[in-house]
Amino acid sequence: MTTAHSSRVPTLDRLRVGSAPDSWGVWFPDDPLQVPWQRFLDEVAEAGYEWIELGPHGYLPTDPAVLRAETGRRGLRVSAGTVFTSLHRGPAVWDDTWAHVSQVAALTAETGARHLVVIPSFWRDDRTAEMIEPAELTADQWRELASGTERLAARVRDTYGLEIAVHPHADTHIDTEANVTRFLDATDPDLVNLCLDTGHYAYCGGDSVRLIETYGERIGYLHLKQVDPEVLADVVAGGVPFGPAVGRGVMCEPPRGVPELEPVLLAAQGLGVELFAIVEQDMYPCPPDQPLPIATRTRRFLRSCGA
């Protein structure tokens, strides 16, 4: 018999829920503060997830046969790889960018995944807060960013059969609602889609539901996370860079933060297309026993939302 409560839970059958190394405190290919990759794979499966991302290139095995064997025997599949780019810097960075992207894209395609998440480079150092370059792009740099992203998307698609999803991110040039919409309006919708990270967008003052409702046809991928509004207020007031902000716990376990994920999930379901919804709770560094209980509770929470 269906209870009154369960009858109100929507069926979000177009969302493919997964998690990522980020949710285990993994930011680098190799770091003594991070759990070994075997433990990550064991625990992400134990927490109830089927899909994972590759994380920083070199953290998981880069031999495709080994990677497929290790994920397959745990019942896991790969949804995407991730790259960092500095395409606003123009043609001078293209060769180095493609060398990095092609390495990650090749491995991603070998796993059977069809998405490549593209994160813009930071304008200030993630650890020291040193300014790397101005926080705002010039008009010429915006043009280079748009044209370079389109060029990258076309080549990744034609060479590896992958679709790129550009990830707005704190402390990058694609961050606030104004900058995200400027980027979307400047790029070809047939080539360039967005990875909407609910936590980063909230961190930068954006409304994820409104973005989905306004630019739904451009949302190609989702990262699910929340921010702690009290910690965020202190971070913003103090001009704290993203890395130390994470250390302060600015990204928190759902449903303790913002944005509310239920409306975001409903809006994403309403797009009528299949979307990956990958949990990514930034927690670098963190104690090795901390991620699994959080990941398990988060998966249970998402199931209670219908996902």
Automatic annotation (TrEMBL):
Keywords: Isomerase. It comes from the Bacteria. Gene3D superfamilies: Divalent-metal-dependent TIM barrel enzymes. One of its GO terms (molecular function) is isomerase activity. Residues 41-281 form the Xylose isomerase-like TIM barrel domain. SUPFAM superfamilies: Xylose isomerase-like. This is Sugar phosphate isomerase/epimerase. It comes from Streptomyces tardus.
